[in-house]
Amino acid sequence: MSKPTSAAITSLPTSPDDERRARMIRYAVAMGIRMVCIGACFVTPGWWMLIPAFGAVVLPYFAVIAANTVVSSPRTAVERPGAVLPFDNRPYSGGPA
User: Fold this and answer.
1) What interhelical angle do 50-68 and 16-43 show, nearest 10?
2) What would the 3-class secondary structure string for 21-52 be?
3) Backbone phi, then psi, for 6, in 5-degree steps?
4) Burial class (CB in 10 A: 0-12, 13-18, 19+), 53
5) How far is CA 89 from CA 2, 82, 93, 96, 97, in A?
6) Nearest in space to 4 (alpha carbons), one of 91, 83, 86
7) What is the CB neighbour count within 10 angstroms for residue 63?
8) Mean pLDDT, 10 residues at a time, over the chain (97 residues)?
9) How far apart are CA 79 and CA 74, in angstroms?
10) Which of the four, 2, 20, 54, 72, has the lowest number of CB atoms within 10 Å?
C-alpha cells in the first residue's frame, strides 16, 4: 500500500485576495506615474511638454489593461485527501477493546 501524495503548498494557485491585491497595486502605481506626468506638464517648457502630456493621456488605458489582466499560473489539480471516510451515524455496537 503506497502513501497518498499530497499537494505541496508551493503548487497551490494564488489566492484570489492576493491576486486582486497585486492587480490593485499595479493600477495604483500606474496612476501615481500618471499624476507625476500631469505635474510635469506644468513645469516642462515648450514642445517637451508633449511627452508628459502623452503619458498622462495614454497611461490610464494601459493601467486598466494591466489591472484587469489576471495572471494565470500553471495550475495543478488540488487533490482531496484520500483518508477521509464517510460519517457513520449508527451507534457503536461494542466489541473487543
Assistant:
1) 170
2) HHHHHHHHHHHHHHHHHHHHHHHCCHHHHHHH
3) -115, 155
4) middle
5) 29, 21, 12, 20, 20
6) 83
7) 19
8) 57 80 92 95 93 94 88 62 68 64
9) 15
10) 2
Question: Number of C-alpha atoms within 13 angstroms, CB side, residue 16?
Answer: 0
Distance CA 32, CA 63 (A): 10
Phi, psi angles (nearest 5°) of residue 37: -65, -40
d(CA 58, CA 66) in angstroms, rounded, equals 13
- Residue given cell 484520500 in the structure block: 82
Give the integer Cα–Cα distance in Å for 36 and 51.
12
Amino acid code (one letter) for 31: M
Which cell is 97 given?
Answer: 477493546
The DSSP code sequence of 45-73 is -GGGGHHHHHHHHHHHHHHHHHHHPPP--
